[in-house]
Amino acid sequence: DAKTTQPNSMESNEEEPVHLPCNHSTISGTDYIHWYRQLPSQGPEYVIHGLTSNVNNRMASLAIAEDRKSSTLILHRATLRDAAVYYCTPQSNYKLTFGKGTLLTVNP
Amino acid sequence: DAGVIQSPRHEVTEMGQEVTLRCKPISGHDYLFWYRQTMMRGLELLIYFNNNVPIDDSGMPEDRFSAKMPNASFSTLKIQPSEPRDSAVYFCASSFSSSSYEQYFGPGTRLTVT
Q1: Cα angle at A43 between B74 and B44, to 5 degrees?
Q2: What pLDDT shows up at residue B26?
Q3: Is A44 helix (H, G, I), strand (E, B) or coil?
Q4: Are residues A43 and B95, on separate chains, in Cβ contact within 8 Å?
Q5: What is the mean pLDDT of residues B70-96?
Q6: What are the residues of chain A with a beta carbon less than 8 Å away from any beta carbon of chain B?
Q7: How far is B76 from chain A (nearest CA, A)?
Q8: DSSP letters of A30-95?
Q9: Residue in A with minimal Cα distance to B34
Q10: Best CA proximity match to B46, nearest among B113, B112, B114, B109
Q11: From CA A38, how far away is CA A101, in angstroms rounded?
């Protein structure tokens, strides 16, 4: 299974953009890159996913490096409700492999 | 849709007892996943089903754990006998193969084995 590396924690101010990085240098060519987040005392929640091209949805944007060894989740305007643990996870054969994730703190 | 439903939400039991966790996936979803989350090991995939058939159970820790999916709307995860090290939050998730494979997680069952 592909391994991912993310910062343990990051901090942001409300209304500012946040860039959450992830390294996945061992990802295979057919694995999708998924991002989930987990709010306190809740199950993980799907955020976005992509394969090679950058992706946008109502929650966030995903920028994928050309060599696919890294990606960045972009929250355009952080809110207090975005405070959570963010997981970058490769998807292989329908399986997700979760690492430790990044704890995002949003300051008012 | 009500989302993925899990029961019970909390379970406290004594070592040696049998524990059964239940999951109702989102209607129409054909994949079902069971995960376990602990502080030490994070979020681990235990087993997943496709069209009610177990596909990969390589994450099931040992023979004390078993999972079934008798129909498309119900799955169970059983631990017999339970041990204190099984204490964790157990999540069920479902997904639809014809979409982009995002998984929808339930609220989890917090299991405490004393």
Answers
A1: 80
A2: 96
A3: coil
A4: no
A5: 97
A6: 32, 34, 36, 42-46, 49, 87, 91, 93-101
A7: 18
A8: TPEEEEEEE-TTS--EEEEEESSS-EE-SS-EEEE-TTSSEEEEEESS--GGG-EEEEEEEEETTE
A9: A95
A10: B109
A11: 9
pLDDT-based confidence at B88, cuts 50/70/90? Answer: very high
**Nearest-angstrom CA–CA distance, B73 and B70:** 8
Q: What pLDDT was estimated at residue A33? A: 93
Tell me the pLDDT tens digit for each residue of A64-100: 999 999 999 999 999 999 999 999 998 887 888 899 9
Question: Looking at the partner chain, which of A32, A46, A99 has a beta carbon nearest the beta carbon of B104?
Answer: A46
Distance between CA atoms of residues B22 and A48, nearest Å:
28
Tokens representing B67 are 């999972």
Rounded Cα–Cα distance for residues B114 and B12 (Å): 7
Report whether A72 contacts A63 (CB < 8 A).
yes
In this complex, the residue of A36, A87, A91 whose CB is nearest that of residue B101 is A91
* Residue range B12-29: mean pLDDT, rounded: 97
Which stretches of chain B sit within 8 Å of chain A by CB? 4, 31, 42-45, 48, 50, 55-56, 91, 93, 95, 97, 100-108
To which residue do tokens 């929640």 refer? A45
> What pLDDT sits at residue A1?
62
Q: What is the pLDDT of residues A5-46, one digit of tens each?
A: 999 999 999 999 999 999 998 888 888 999 999 999 999 999
- Which residue type does A76 have? H
Question: What is the rounded distance in angstroms from the CA atom of residue A86 to the CA atom of residue A39?
Answer: 9
DSSP A86: E
